Amino acid sequence: MTIRQPREGGRARSGGRPTLEEVAARAGVGRGTVSRVINGSPRVSETTRAAVEAAVAELGYVPNTAARALAANRTDAIALVVPEPEGRFFAEPYFSDIIHGVGVALADTEVQLLLTFASKDRERRRLAQYLAAQRVDGVLLVSVHANDPLPDLIDDLHIPAVVSGRRSATEPLASVDTDNFEGARAAIAHLVERGRTRIATITGILDVYGAQRRLDGYRAALSAAGIEEDEALVEPGDFSEEGGRRAMAELLRRRPDLDAVFAASDVMASGARQILREQGRRIPDDVSLVGFDDSAIARHMDPPLTSVRQPIEQMGREMTRLLLAEIAAIDAHRPQTSRLLSREQVVLPTQLVIRSSS
Amino acid sequence: MTIRQPREGGRARSGGRPTLEEVAARAGVGRGTVSRVINGSPRVSETTRAAVEAAVAELGYVPNTAARALAANRTDAIALVVPEPEGRFFAEPYFSDIIHGVGVALADTEVQLLLTFASKDRERRRLAQYLAAQRVDGVLLVSVHANDPLPDLIDDLHIPAVVSGRRSATEPLASVDTDNFEGARAAIAHLVERGRTRIATITGILDVYGAQRRLDGYRAALSAAGIEEDEALVEPGDFSEEGGRRAMAELLRRRPDLDAVFAASDVMASGARQILREQGRRIPDDVSLVGFDDSAIARHMDPPLTSVRQPIEQMGREMTRLLLAEIAAIDAHRPQTSRLLSREQVVLPTQLVIRSSS
DNA sequence: ATCACACCTGGGAGCGCTCCCGCCGTACCT
DNA sequence: AGGTACGGCGGGAGCGCTCCCAGGTGTGAT
């Protein structure tokens, strides 16, 4: 007969960290009780709780997340998935604000945020694997294009998810979006009020639903003002500065008499401004310029840019709130209960910030 | 006698994902064999391997990371800890490049990168908890100040860690750094060569070791050139644009006759340039300007900025390489083996990129 | 034909936790 | 006094995996 040696508690790295059982022994209680204290269950007497807490403090006990995840089937982590290359991620203040909002919403929870990039196809596949391996309880998806298969894939995996910016009018996932239509409409109405009549627009990438909605708002406002549409005044951009320059040059070529430009992003407005300057147009005397996002660029532009503010940080907060709610809902569900997830669609208002460019 | 119902496989969320056991049954082999195949062990016959792989594919099996982490005591994840507020993180191209390098080094591993911010004290504590909970196998620390307790804390936890930028000449942790001294020395030597003699410097935050080294290099180069030191030509900045402006103004006030400025970062150089312009100094005719980092700012400045390039992406790669090596080393160690971690110190060379500002 | 040895393989034990069943004791009712 | 709740608690079972031992099978040497 062979006596098996106990396995030496995993790898050397475990470094002899205390376990639940050790805390229980120290406090003179059972494992279950310690677990209840750790998880804040009310079904523990005050005295016992105090004893356990003392033992936890003395031993410097920290629950092992892997064990907890395995036993409870939850990870207390959510992922923010960015389907863009790192470069763009860092370039756009948008992401910084979103993350900040998420951070705020997570501040008084125990939930950890993971950042994941998934621009290339290979990374996509890895991400799918990652999610299937149940490493997170839910997913926040930002900057999703209309034809991106990722959201549906995530949905198929039955992983709670919230997207920022609907992909279409009938977004099947829970989403948080800003009122792009109304924001654009207000911007144009403002230009009309200023007496502008030949108002051009540089659109975003139109397979992004929000960009499409901004264009819709532009059109609606013109028609409401009784101004006839003119396709020569609409030029697609790609949300980049270079795209803004290109589109602006093209618009000026086609309609040298334009008297206002609505760019679907501040970055594009900045590009447009360069071209206007180069061609000797004064802003706002000759041409009014309005952007979208109200980013730092808008405030620092010369002249300061009128822009449509999106409450991006709030979007981050809302997304997180929705996601945590979805996760909680699933947790509460027993299999027999019918699955009526909210799939809430939140639309946040925009606000026109008027500066001297218009 | 009561028959206990089996526990229904955790929560509803588990969504009936296949387990190792199910794959084993399907392939007609034992658990151990499937595990070996999944982990690429060579001790499996070709036929068996094929059968298992088929079963894995059919069932769409993905190993559960929590279970694996618990059993093997490793998570296959590392954390990049940024002890700065999100804002600065996004503002500095530095981080973007580091992350890119890390991504490259991780590309053909199964290791996942987590991004963590820990600027405020509260976040620090949470981070410590997080790390103690063994959620990552190791930590990359960037942008560490000399007096930051975080690294030592992490070291006490016996978690493998690599810092970017030593905190002192005798950094106890493994580290990757650039040769700040030599970079600064070369920049000054270049200015001397250009015939400049009254060379000022705007330093970084001097409790950052790298900033101190740049100042040391500045001094060494001057003394090597036989130029007498003049403390009126040294003004501390804080790595910000505003700090650069402030320091430049102060330098011009004290020494209106200066003929060159070496700024310890491109951002500060950009601030300095504004003040030089405002005061009517021509660059480089009246004053030569040199920066540090060779960031995008340097290339886009008017005139383009001479700057010391740091191989930041390579730093990210090196850091990751060191960290993975440390983790592997610990993994291989049995407790009885003495702990001789390398604690390697890598110093990467810098390169002076000469443009028209000098 | 026998033995030694390699190579594969199955499955027990255990990682540290959560969940839940059922026991114990006390307080309250009849 | 006995019965009945109920809050508090202990500990068994199990989450899905890895590790490792022992056993089986096949090969080549004796």
Automatic annotation (TrEMBL), chains A, B:
PROSITE patterns: HTH_LACI_1 (PS00356), HTH_LACI_2 (PS50932)
Entry keyword DNA-binding: yes
UniProtKB keywords: DNA-binding, Transcription, Transcription regulation
InterPro entries hit by this protein: HTH_LacI, LacI/GalR-like_sensor, Lambda_DNA-bd_dom_sf, Peripla_BP_I
Top-level taxon: Bacteria
Pfam families xrefs: LacI, Peripla_BP_3
Domain HTH lacI-type: start-end pairs: 18-72
GO molecular function: DNA binding
Protein name (Swiss-Prot/TrEMBL): LacI family DNA-binding transcriptional regulator
Organism (species): Streptomyces polyasparticus
Lineage: Bacteria, Bacillati, Actinomycetota, Actinomycetes, Kitasatosporales
